[in-house]
C-alpha cells in the first residue's frame, strides 16, 4: 500500500509538471518575437551602413554653403533621421539581448523539465514492472494455494473421529486456511485497483503525448508563417531601400544643379564687385581731398570779406534772401524725402522674451529676422512660416534711441508747420507703452520727441520764435477724458473748428506750455497718475484706454512775420487681444469690449482707405474720429506695431502684422503745411495767449464729473505750476 501511495503522489506531481509545461510552451512566441527583432535589427544595421556610406560620400564632395536652400534643410532632416535610426538600433539591440537571455532561461527550464519527465517515465516503467512481478507472484501464490486446498479438505473429512490433538491441528489449519483466503481476496482487490491505476496512467500518458504532438505541429505551422512574413518583410525592405536610393539620387542631382547655378552667379557678381570697389576708392579719395578744398575756399572767402566788407553790407539783404530760399529748399527736400518713404509708414518692434512669458514650448521664440533685409520679419505660426514686409523691423536688441532715430525725421516736420501722428499698435504686453513712454532712465518716443523739439527750437532761436504746448487725453470706454484737467473723469467731445478749416479740436482740453525737460517730466507724471491701467492675464499693468499726447508747435519768422502751426499726435493704443485670452471679467470685460470695438473701427477705416471708398467711417468710434486728421491726408503718419515673439502669442502677432501690412498699403497723399502771414486767427489767439502770459494751464469750460470718481490731489497739480 505504501508503494501505491508513492505511485499516486508521483502521478500527481507529473500532472502538475505537465500543466506547468503547458503554461511555459508560450516561450515559442518569445522566440518568434526574438527572431523578428533579429531580422529587424539586421535590416536597421544594413540601412544604417548605407546611410553612413552616403553621408561619407556627401562629406567628401566639396559643396559651397547655400543659405536658404531647401536641400540643406532636407540634408539636416536626413541627419536627424539617421540619428533617430541609430537610437532605434541601440534600443533594438538592448531589447534583443534581453529577449535572448529570457529565451535561454526558458530553454534551460524546458530541458530540465524534459529530463524530469524522462526520469518520471522511467520510474513509472520500473514501478509497473514491479507491480507486474508482484501480480505474477500473487497468481502463483493463489495457484499454489488452490493446489494445496483439496488435501486439507480431505483430511478434514477423514480425520473427523481422531484424537483431540488432531482436532486442534485441524482447527488451526482451518483458521490458517481462512486467513490465507482473506489475504488472497485482499490481494485480488489490490491487484484490481492497481490495474485501474495503471490503465488511467496509460490514458494520461497518451493524452500528454497527443498534446505534445499538437504543440509540435503548432510550432511548425507558426515557424512556417514566420518564414513567410520574414520573406515578405525582406521584399518590402528591399523595395523601400530602392525607392529611397532613387529619391536620394534625384535630390542629390538637384543639389548639384543648384550648386552649379550658385557658382555661376558668384562668377557673374565678381565684375560688379570690382566695379563697386573702384567706385568706393574714388569716393574715398574725393572725401580725403574735401578738407583741403574746404580750407582753401574758406581762406578765399575770408580774404574777400576782409577786402570788401562794404560790399557785404550792401549785399546783406540779397544774401539773406538767398539764404532763406536755400533754407526753404532744404525743408522742401527733407519733407519730400519723408513723403517718398510713405504717408503712413509702418515699423515693427519685437520685444525680448521675459520671465513673465514662462518656460516650456509655449515660451519658445517664434519670430526670426532676415539678415539681409531689415524690413522683413518671419513668423512661425502653427508650424508654417509666414513672412511680412514693412518699412523697418527692429529686433529685441534694438534700443530706444535706435527706434527714435527712425521717427525723428517726422518729428522735425512738426516745427515746419506740418501735422505728424505716431501711434503704437499691438497686443497687451507687447511693449507699446514702453516704446512710447519708456522709463525714467530710458525714456521713449514721447519725451525724446519733446527734447528734440527743444533742441531744434534753440538752434533756430536767432530767426524764429517758437512756443510748445502739451495736452494729454485718453479714450476710456468710448469716453474722451482730459488727463491734465482738474476733473479727469469729465467727458469731452470732438468738434470741428469754427474757422471753417475742417480741422478737429476738443473744447475744454487742457494745454500746458513747456519750456524745458523738467516741465515735460511734470506733465508726464501728472498724466500717468490719471491713466487707467488694470491687471489682466496678459499684463500686470495693462493699459485699459487709448492715450494721446498732443504737442502743438507755433512758430513765427522774426524777419518776415511768417507764422506756422504744427501738431504732433503721439498715441498709445490699448491692447489688441481677444477678450477670452485676456481673462477680463465684469468691468474689465466691458473695457475690453470697448477697446476691441474701437480697434475694429480703426480696421474698418483702414480697409475703406485702402480700397479708396467714397465714405470712410471715421465717426464709428471716438478713436478714429480723433485720428481723422492723421488718417485722411492732413498729416504725416507712422505706425509702430509691437510684436511679442513667444509661441503662445503667435495668433495675436499674426493679426497685428497683417493689420500693419494693410495700413502700409494705404495711400493718403502729401500732407499740407499750416503757415500764414499776418496775425493769428482768433481761435489760435485764444489758445496762444494764456500760455504766453502765464504759466497756468489753459482750458475751456468743463462739464460735471462722472459719478463714482474722485479728483486728484492738488499737490500733483502744484508740481505743474512753473515757478514765477
TrEMBL record:
It is a peripheral membrane protein. Residues 715-724 have a biased composition (Basic residues). InterPro entries: Kinesin-like_fam, Kinesin_motor_CS, Kinesin_motor_dom, Kinesin_motor_dom_sf, P-loop_NTPase. GO terms for molecular function: ATP binding; microtubule motor activity. Residues 343-666 form the Kinesin motor domain. The keyword Transit peptide does not apply. Residues 34-130, 177-243, 302-329 form a coiled coil. Keywords: ATP-binding, Cell junction, Coiled coil, Cytoplasm, Cytoplasmic vesicle, Cytoskeleton, Membrane, Microtubule, Motor protein, Nucleotide-binding, Phosphoprotein. It is found in: Cell junction, Adherens junction; Cytoplasm, Cytoskeleton, Microtubule organizing center, Centrosome; Cytoplasmic vesicle membrane. ATP binds at residues 426-433. Residues 670-724 are annotated as: Disordered. It comes from the Eukaryota. One of its GO terms (cellular component) is adherens junction. Residues 704-713 have a biased composition (Polar residues). Belongs to the TRAFAC class myosin-kinesin ATPase superfamily. Kinesin family. Minus-end microtubule-dependent motor protein. Involved in apically targeted transport. Required for zonula adherens maintenance. This is Kinesin-like protein.
Amino acid at each position: 500500500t505504501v508503494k501505491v501511495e508513492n505511485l499516486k503522489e508521483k502521478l500527481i506531481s507529473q500532472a502538475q509538471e505537465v500543466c506547468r509545461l503547458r503554461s511555459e510552451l508560450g516561450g515559442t512566441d518569445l522566440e518568434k518575437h526574438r527572431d523578428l527583432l533579429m531580422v529587424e535589427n539586421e535590416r536597421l544595421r544594413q540601412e544604417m551602413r548605407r546611410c553612413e556610406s552616403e553621408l561619407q560620400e556627401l562629406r567628401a564632395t566639396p559643396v559651397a554653403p547655400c543659405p536658404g536652400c531647401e536641400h540643406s534643410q532636407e540634408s539636416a532632416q536626413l541627419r536627424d533621421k539617421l540619428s533617430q535610426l541609430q537610437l532605434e538600433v541601440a534600443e533594438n539591440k538592448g531589447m534583443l539581448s534581453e529577449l535572448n537571455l529570457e529565451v535561454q532561461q526558458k530553454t534551460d527550464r524546458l530541458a530540465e523539465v524534459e529530463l524530469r519527465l524522462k526520469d518520471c517515465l522511467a520510474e513509472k516503467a520500473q514501478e509497473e514492472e514491479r507491480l507486474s512481478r508482484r501480480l505474477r507472484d500473487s497468481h502463483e501464490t493463489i495457484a499454489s494455494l488452490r493446489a494445496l486446498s483439496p488435501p486439507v479438505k480431505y483430511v478434514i473429512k477423514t480425520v473427523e473421529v481422531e484424537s483431540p490433538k488432531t482436532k486442534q491441528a485441524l482447527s488451526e489449519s482451518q483458521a490458517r486456511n481462512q486467513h490465507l483466503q482473506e489475504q488472497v481476496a485482499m490481494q485480488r482487490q489490490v491487484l484490481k485497483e492497481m490495474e485501474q491505476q495503471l490503465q488511467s496512467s496509460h490514458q494520461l500518458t497518451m493524452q500528454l503525448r497527443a498534446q505534445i504532438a499538437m504543440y509540435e505541429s503548432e510550432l511548425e505551422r507558426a515557424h512556417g508563417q514566420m518564414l513567410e512574413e520574414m520573406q515578405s518583410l525582406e521584399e518590402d525592405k528591399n523595395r523601400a531601400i530602392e525607392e529611397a536610393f532613387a529619391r536620394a539620387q534625384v535630390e542629390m542631382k538637384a543639389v548639384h544643379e543648384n550648386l552649379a547655378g550658385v557658382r555661376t552667379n558668384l562668377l557673374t557678381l565678381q565684375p560688379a564687385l570690382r566695379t563697386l570697389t573702384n567706385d568706393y576708392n574714388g569716393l574715398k579719395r574725393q572725401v580725403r581731398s574735401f578738407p583741403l578744398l574746404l580750407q582753401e575756399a574758406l581762406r578765399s572767402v575770408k580774404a574777400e570779406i576782409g577786402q570788401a566788407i562794404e560790399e557785404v553790407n550792401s549785399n546783406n539783404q540779397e544774401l539773406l534772401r538767398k539764404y532763406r530760399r536755400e533754407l526753404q529748399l532744404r525743408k522742401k527736400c527733407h519733407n519730400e524725402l519723408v513723403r517718398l518713404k510713405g504717408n503712413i509708414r509702418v515699423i515693427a518692434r519685437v520685444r525680448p522674451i521675459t520671465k513673465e512669458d514662462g518656460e516650456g514650448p509655449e515660451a519658445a521664440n517664434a519670430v526670426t529676422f532676415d539678415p539681409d533685409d531689415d524690413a522683413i520679419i518671419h513668423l512661425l505660426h502653427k508650424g508654417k512660416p509666414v513672412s511680412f514686409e514693412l518699412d523697418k523691423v527692429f529686433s529685441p536688441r534694438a534700443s530706444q534711441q535706435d527706434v527714435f532715430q527712425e521717427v525723428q525725421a517726422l518729428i522735425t516736420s512738426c516745427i515746419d508747420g506740418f501735422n505728424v501722428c505716431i501711434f503704437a499698435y499691438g497686443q497687451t504686453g507687447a511693449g507699446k507703452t514702453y516704446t512710447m513712454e519708456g522709463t525714467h532712465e530710458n525714456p521713449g518716443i514721447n519725451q525724446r520727441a519733446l527734447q528734440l523739439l527743444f533742441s531744434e527750437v534753440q538752434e533756430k532761436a536767432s530767426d524764429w520764435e517758437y512756443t510748445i504746448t502739451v495736452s494729454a487725453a485718453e479714450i476710456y470706454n468710448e469716453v474722451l477724458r482730459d488727463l491734465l484737467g482738474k476733473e479727469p473723469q469729465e467727458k469731452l467731445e470732438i468738434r470741428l473748428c469754427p474757422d471753417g478749416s475742417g480741422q478737429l479740436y476738443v473744447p475744454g482740453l487742457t494745454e500746458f506750455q513747456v519750456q524745458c525737460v523738467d516741465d515735460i517730466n511734470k506733465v508726464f507724471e501728472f498724466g500717468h497718475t490719471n491713466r487707467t491701467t488694470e491687471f489682466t492675464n496678459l499684463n500686470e499693468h495693462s493699459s485699459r484706454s487709448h492715450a494721446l499726447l498732443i504737442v502743438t508747435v507755433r512758430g513765427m519768422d522774426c524777419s518776415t512775420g511768417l507764422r506756422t502751426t504744427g501738431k504732433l499726435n503721439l498715441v498709445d493704443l490699448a491692447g489688441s487681444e481677444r477678450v477670452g485670452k485676456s481673462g477680463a471679467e465684469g468691468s474689465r470685460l466691458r473695457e475690453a469690449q470697448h477697446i476691441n470695438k474701437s480697434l475694429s473701427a480703426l480696421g474698418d477705416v483702414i480697409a475703406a482707405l485702402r480700397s479708396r471708398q467714397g465714405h470712410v467711417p471715421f465717426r464709428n468710434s471716438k478713436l478714429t474720429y480723433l485720428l481723422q486728421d492723421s488718417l485722411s491726408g492732413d498729416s504725416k503718419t507712422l505706425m509702430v506695431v509691437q510684436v511679442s515673439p513667444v509661441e503662445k502669442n503667435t495668433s495675436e502677432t499674426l493679426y497685428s502684422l497683417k493689420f500693419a501690412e494693410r495700413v502700409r498699403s494705404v495711400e493718403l497723399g502729401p500732407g499740407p503745411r499750416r503757415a500764414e502771414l499776418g496775425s493769428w486767427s482768433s481761435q489760435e489767439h485764444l489758445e496762444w495767449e494764456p500760455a504766453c502770459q502765464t504759466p497756468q494751464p489753459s482750458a475751456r469750460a468743463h462739464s460735471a464729473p462722472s459719478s463714482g470718481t474722485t479728483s486728484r490731489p492738488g499737490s500733483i497739480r502744484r508740481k505743474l505750476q512753473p515757478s514765477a
